[in-house]
Amino acid sequence: MKTLITSLVILCAAGFTGCSTFNSRAQAKSAAFNALPAQTQQRLEKGKVTVGDSQDMVFIALDKPDATRNITTANGPETVWIYKSYWQNYAGTGWVGWHRYYEPQFGGAYAFYHQQVPLALSTTRSADVIRVTFKNGKVVAVNQAAT
Hints:
The chain is α+β, with helices and mostly antiparallel strands.
């Protein structure tokens, strides 16, 4: 029993350490964060980025991007950080096969039964929510979906 409780505590702790919060991101980039004015720190805490922010500031505000793109423009190379939103698109229920089971009967015999196995049909969908474009390590454009 003690081993089970210890295992559960370790599993829970491992689950919580994978979460990225504003405080953990600010601590990870503490040198950059502590050098910012209080008003800018409050803006980043609200998850707002603006033109002129550094990559560290965007990381503190929004975390790691879901995807990155390196593009070439007439003004030179740029990097785009893409943040996405994910959701499940439920499409009903389907049948994936049959489940066979048996029950013992009186006299040593068995009764066999077959039952259909349902499956929730859904697809994972995603959409770009924010695109942040950097040139020379500074934000030059923020493209955010309307909410």
